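Q: Could you write out the predicted structure for this multi-component system? I'm mainly interested in how the pieces pack against one another.
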Amino acid sequence: MSLEEWDLTIQVESPVDFASLIHHGFDIVEFYEAQDLGDYFSMLNGPTYESLVKHFW
Amino acid sequence: MGLELFVDTEIRSNIMGVLVFINQETIAYVIGRASEGNYKDGLDNNKKSPWNEVVNETMFNSKKKGSYSNLSIEKKMLLKIQNENLLPKGGGSDQPSLEHRVFLHFFLKKEKANVPNYIFKHMIKTLKEIQLNYRTWIPYGRLVSEIFNQGSLLRGLSETRGFTNDMLGTVTGKIINGATLANMKLIKVDAIIKLESDMKESRISSNLVEGFPPICKQDPLDVQLFYIHDHLQSTGEEIRLEDIPETMYGGNVKVSKRRKTKRKPVSEAEYLEGASEQPPKKAKKAKKDKAPEATGSGLASIQEEVEDLEAKKILPERTRSGKAATTSLTAPEQHAIPKKKRKHVARKLKESKYVEAEQESDEATQLVTREVKRKKVIDEAVQRAMELA
């Protein structure tokens, strides 16, 4: 058995809308800021090139 | 042996001939954070690990391990975000492993965790699972794409303009917001508040198409000409009519499906067709043309059947953009992304065996009919001779 490129499923990270969460009473942004992950979360809302990623793996 | 010197653990691969290396420092750079902090390795769900008590204390405020339903809604949300973005996990998210729980513990206690190291080790673990257990699910799609983006890969590709979102398979992730809370049954559906400031899925397609005027072949010709003229005046760059893409570059980017959604298995033909590549069809045609010469007229009927069974006619003709595939035939020299084909040889062998078997049986039936005919002729001749006599 071998894996084909088209068999792969890419999981795309979910950007988190902290403003909306705060509005619903979930203020969790502090936990991520404590880890310096602010940049990471703002980076998440961007394009993912599935074909390239599949090709890479 | 031609291998590069070992300096550090890194993942090496290539895309269209461009070497791409990913190591812990690459990840640290891309997520904009130094690779430092706590990292606990080799926890392996050991029930005797002293970490169990520490983690249970943080998560459930008790020494005993509780269940997912005992978690506060805030912790459920943190776990959800961790399972989606930081240490993506296949399968159910309500039974986190010890490693996941320790990682969550660092977040809850605001102790700095070595996130780049966690992500990199998780990538390596996934890579091993892909290679050893044929796991098909790959995490960190967006992170890897960003590494391509910040590296020189996308810049290199942009020199050969002509990539569309369909070819790159561009998608964006689904946003976690108020609606997600309702889906997780943490709040009631009627409590969802939609704000104007709500985050929208990114519509930036890529920097491959940066600065390209918003035109496509679907626009009227005079509109296209106007934009080309405008672009020439403002930037001094000339765009040829052939370079204008079929579909709009900055158009709606598909939102990636959640991993719980059952996906229709994608066949080879669909995958290759989806990437608007035509060569596979040509290859089939070429094979078809060659076949009669090689096998002779005996196989003619089978060839007709093969023609009827041709995938092109049976499978719905479609591309990822939902446009008819025929239009992409007329597309100007679009550089398609070469695909890895690993199983091709085996497939060919199978096909040829099948054809051989068919040929043999066909020849056998022909032999039988020929024999029957000969017998008939002889019988007729004997009967006529008898009549004459």
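A: Regarding packing and overall arrangement: DSSP finds 16 helices and five strands in chain B.
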